[in-house]
Recover the amino acids of this structure.
């Protein structure tokens, strides 16, 4: 049981979100041991595909009309197209184990991009495949080795080739790419921000190669590097190519996807931080003096950022996208997750990181949030813009 | 922006802060002054005529020791809530003034506000202010929570002050204002343990 009180999040139906939270929390209970196994061997997810949490991740953000059995609880049906419901789902699964959650098959970020940019035919093909009987892993290829996640500067090239195109370049730090069946690659068709496109790529395409990058923690994310050499791309693989103007696709899709996903990522960090604090509480139930004050400080900050994250997610659902607030809540949640693990290691005493495999894992995993969905430095620039425009602290 | 700068470059800003401090007293204990657990009272010169000027307070606030019994716990808590909110507003004002000031300054042909290090420092302060707002909105406030919000605001305030350069050290400027916020926290929010 979490020691962070569950305040009803904002939104049109607090009962509905409470039902969802309870349902997902139950599924997340069995993830701790499996998460440790995945930390040792990231391919171990293949041995846990029967778990309820995997089912939730597979169906998460897939429209209900494509699913034989959508997520149902308490008389409600959930497809997690709501950013708030998506955030709550991911937070609870991450409380179970964030690495496990990220190792799961399902749409994750690529689904948000397809939903935002794809035409009916593209969405239909994508969701049909995701809803099929076999598990499908996906990836979201934005970051490049030389340019990071600076979407306007990316260099992966989409070059006309006969009646289609070819794709050449490299992507780095892309979750699940080495294990995925399909994903979205952001690339440049022409100079300037309007020349950016998002392309659906099947990883079995000739010229596509991806391999895992060993990481310090969050090994379940199976972070990978991609190389693309003369990968054939048909026009119908370019998201929104026939239905959206260049000003509404490509870069806009990348930004929209990242903004929609940042509260979800913040939810991952919040879930991990909650798990850390509850672990401290179990191992040291009655801290006193400075230890108690330090614990309470992190607990309070967690409650504050969690509440803010729900507000941001609910605002996105209501159609209000405030880049500065989204950036701030992602930054605060990521920093807090790291701090919670550092404080936990101190409160649990000398040798805790060596003796306690679970704490050790959380301590390593928490460091991933800093760079996921944009580094803290990038987020700070958005916060700065909000200060200058007097929107951030309004 | 310019109005914020004027507010804090002007010595009357300190007196404006002192008046806001008096309003905190009134909100917690209408018509009275709230004494700390150790019997200290700090207020404006007008409100506490017999008080001694607070060192470093540029004449805006005065203090009196031992002249009043400590306020009841609920009054002290209400006053402490007001004090932390006032502290947050003061840091925010100092940050706004710094942004306005740096927007007017140039170095090596470039606007100082365009420097990424400066922008990062501004964002860091803003993030603490945002977090303080969220922490103060949580249910069931505690003395521990107020103290740690105060501590983080002290750190953020000093970071905001650094953006003012040496002018942040001038007695009639934002340095004195933030010194007062630190002194008030030390007086009213201190846990009583050394």
């Amino acid at each position: 049981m979490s020691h962070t009180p569950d305040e009803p999040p904002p939104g049109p139906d607090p009962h509905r979100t409470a039902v969802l939270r309870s349902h997902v929390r139950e599924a997340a209970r069995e993830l701790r041991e499996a998460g440790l196994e995945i930390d040792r061997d990231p391919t171990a997810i293949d041995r846990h595909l029967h778990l309820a949490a995997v089912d939730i991740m597979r169906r998460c953000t897939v429209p209900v009309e494509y699913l034989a059995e959508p997520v149902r609880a308490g008389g409600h049906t959930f497809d997690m197209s709501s950013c708030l419901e998506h955030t709550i789902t991911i937070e609870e699964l991450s409380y179970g184990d964030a690495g496990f959650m990220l190792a799961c098959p399902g749409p994750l970020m690529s689904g948000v991009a397809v939903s935002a940019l794809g035409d009916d035919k593209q969405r239909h093909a994508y969701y049909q495949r995701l809803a099929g009987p076999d598990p499908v892993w996906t990836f979201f290829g934005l970051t490049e080795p030389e340019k990071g996640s600076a979407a306007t500067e990316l260099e992966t090239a989409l070059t006309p080739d006969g009646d289609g195109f070819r794709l050449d370049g490299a992507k780095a730090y892309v979750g699940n790419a080495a294990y995925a069946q399909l994903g979205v690659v952001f690339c440049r068709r022409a100079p300037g921000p309007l020349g950016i496109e998002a392309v659906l790529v099947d990883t079995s395409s000739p010229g596509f190669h991806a391999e895992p990058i060993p990481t310090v923690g969050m090994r379940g994310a199976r972070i990978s590097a991609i190389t693309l050499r003369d990968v054939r791309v048909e026009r119908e693989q370019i998201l929104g190519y026939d239905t959206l103007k260049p000003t509404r696709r490509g870069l806009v899709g990348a930004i929209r996807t990242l903004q929609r996903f940042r509260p979800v990522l913040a939810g991952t960090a919040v879930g991990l931080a909650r798990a850390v604090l509850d672990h401290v509480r179990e191992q040291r139930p009655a801290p006193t003096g400075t230890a108690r004050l330090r614990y309470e400080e992190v607990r309070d900050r967690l409650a504050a950022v969690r509440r803010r994250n729900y507000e941001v997610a609910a605002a996105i659902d209501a159609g209000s996208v405030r880049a500065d607030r989204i950036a701030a809540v992602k930054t605060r949640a990521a920093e807090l997750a790291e701090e919670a693990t550092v404080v936990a290691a101190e409160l649990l005493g000398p040798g805790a990181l060596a003796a306690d495999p679970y704490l050790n894992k959380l301590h390593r995993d928490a460091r991933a949030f800093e760079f996921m969905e944009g580094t803290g430095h990038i987020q700070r620039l958005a916060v700065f813009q909000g200060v200058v425009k007097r929107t951030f602290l309004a | 922006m310019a109005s914020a700068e004027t507010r804090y470059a002007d010595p009357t800003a300190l007196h404006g802060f002192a008046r806001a401090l008096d309003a905190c007293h009134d909100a917690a204990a209408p018509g009275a002054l709230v004494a700390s657990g150790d019997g200290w009272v700090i207020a404006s010169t007008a409100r506490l005529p017999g008080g001694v000027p607070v060192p470093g307070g540029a004449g805006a606030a005065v203090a009196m020791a031992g002249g009043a019994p400590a306020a009841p716990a609920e009054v002290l808590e209400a006053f402490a809530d007001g004090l932390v909110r006032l502290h947050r507003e003061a840091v925010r004002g100092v940050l706004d003034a710094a942004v306005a000031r740096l927007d007017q300054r140039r170095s090596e042909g470039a606007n100082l506000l365009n420097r990424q290090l400066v922008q990062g420092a501004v964002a860091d302060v803003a993030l603490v202010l945002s977090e303080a707002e969220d922490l103060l909105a949580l249910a069931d406030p505690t003395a521990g929570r107020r103290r740690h919000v105060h501590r983080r605001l002290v750190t953020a305030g000093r970071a905001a002050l650094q953006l003012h350069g040496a002018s942040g050290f001038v007695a009639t400027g934002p340095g004195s204002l933030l010194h007062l916020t630190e002194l008030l926290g030390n007086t009213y929010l201190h846990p009583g343990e050394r």
